[in-house]
Amino acid sequence: MLSVKLAKNIGFCSGVRRAVNIVEETLIQSKSKVYSLGPVIHNPEVIKQLKEKNLCIVNSLDNLEGSSTLILPSHGSPRNILDTAKKKRLRLIDVTCPYVSLVQKICVLLHKQGLEVIIVGDRKHPEVRALLDLAPGAYTIEKIKDIKEDIFSYKKIGIISQTTQTKDIFFGVVSEILQKNPLIKEVHVYNTVCLDTVRRQDEAKKLADSVDILLVIGSRHSANTKRLLCIGRKINKRTHLVENEKANLNKILKKANKVGLISGASTPQWLVKKIVKKIINLRKEKLK
Ligand code: SF4
Description:
Radius of gyration: 21 Å
CATH superfamily of the largest domain: 4-hydroxy-3-methylbut-2-enyl diphosphate reductase, catalytic domain
Helix content: 40-55%
Mean pLDDT: 93
Bound molecules: iron/sulfur cluster
CATH topology of the largest domain: Cobalt-precorrin-4 Transmethylase, domain 1
Oligomer: single chain
Shape: flat
Number of helices: 10
CATH class of the largest domain: Alpha Beta
Number of domains: 3
CATH architecture of the largest domain: 3-Layer(aba) Sandwich
C-alpha cells in the first residue's frame, strides 16, 4: 500500500515567510500602487496570489512614478536598481532575507580588506549578481571543474557561497582551489550556505535513500528546489519535480509503495498539503 513520508522542513523557510508577510502587509496598508521588479520569491503559485491582491510585477523601473512603492526581492538587488529607485524617489520596501544581508556584509568586508573575492554560486542568479555589485571584480565559480590551475596563486582570497549552494560543492571548491594553488598567501573561508538550506539538503539525502520515489515540490525557477532535485537524483533516480497539483501523479507514482515528499524554501505549505491530499485520494482509488 502507498505510504507517504513527509520531510520535517517543508513550506516556506523563515526568510521567505518574512518576505511574503511584509508584502501582504504592504499591500493592505499602502495607499499608492505596489510594484515588484521581477518576482519577490521564486514560486509562481505564490506570485499568482500576490498579484490577485494587487501586486504589480514589472520588468523595469522606467514607467514607475515617484509616489509608487517598490518591493525589493528576498534574494537582494543589484546596486544600479537601488540607485535608479532612489533617484526616482520610490518608496522602497526591502524584503531581503536577513541571512542574505549578512552574506552581503561579509562580501563587502572581504572586498574592503583587499582580498580577491570568490563566490561559489550561479552567476546568473540575482543573489550572486547583487554580490558581484558589492565586490567588483569578484570571481564566480559554479562547479569544481571550473577551477583552473594556479589562477589564485600568490593572491589573498576570501571565499563565500550563494546561500542556497550545496555544502558538498562549496567545500569541494574550497579544497580544489587550495590543492591547485598551493602558493596562495592568505585564505578566508566563510561557509555562507544558510542553515535552512543545509537542513533540507540533509533531509533530501536521507529521504531519497529510504523511499521508492522522492517528490521535490517547488518551482523549476527556484535555485534551492533545483539543488534538492539534483541531490535526490544522485541517490534515487526516481526523484521528480512536482510544481503544483496539476502534475500527473498517477503516472509518476506507478509501482511505488513508499513516497517521500520534500519542498523548496519558497514553496508554500498549502501547496504541499494539496499534493499530499492528491496522493491520499489516489491511494483510495487504488483500494476500490
Ligand atoms: S533559503 Fe535561507 S537565505 Fe534563502 S530566503 Fe530562506 S532563510 Fe533566507
